[in-house]
Amino acid sequence: MVVRAFVQTVGYGMRIDPDMLRWLRDERGLSVNKLAKMSGVSVDVITAIEDGRYRGSPDCARKLAGGLSGAGHGEPVLPDDLWMPEDERR
After folding, report:
1. Is 55 inside any structural domain?
2. Is 84 inside any structural domain?
3. Over 70: is that where the pLDDT of 90 sits?
4. Long-range contacts at 33-38 (CB < 8 A, ≥ 24 apart)
């Protein structure tokens, strides 16, 4: 199963890239509130990720990717598109 493989490959030292999340959200014209509704991830969690206060989880990345892809703009977003090493900033 793809999700299981994804969870196994994402270990400690990885986080959702706050800049990439914000860029993808802005590119699709989504507010934080709209992305929260489309993904099932709370506004507080999305804001904390974008502010760099929360690293996120594989399940959170999957939900956010689904919400971003559901916006119907641009290429589909995969959970892997959102991950970056903990000590790296783009």
Report:
1. yes
2. no
3. no
4. 35/64, 35/67, 35/68, 36/67, 38/66, 38/67, 38/68, 38/70, 38/71
Q: What is the DSSP string of 15-83?
A: EE-HHHHHHHHHHTT--HHHHHHHHS--HHHHHHHHTTS----HHHHHHHHHHHHTT-SSSPPPGGGGE
Cβ proximity of 51 and 18 under 8 Å: yes
Q: How many domains does the chain have?
A: 1
Each residue's pLDDT tens digit, 32-83: 999 999 999 999 999 999 999 999 998 999 999 999 998 677 778 888 888 8
Q: Is 78 contained in some domain? A: no
Query: What CATH number corresponds to the domain at position 44?
Result: 1.10.260.40
pTM for the model: 0.80
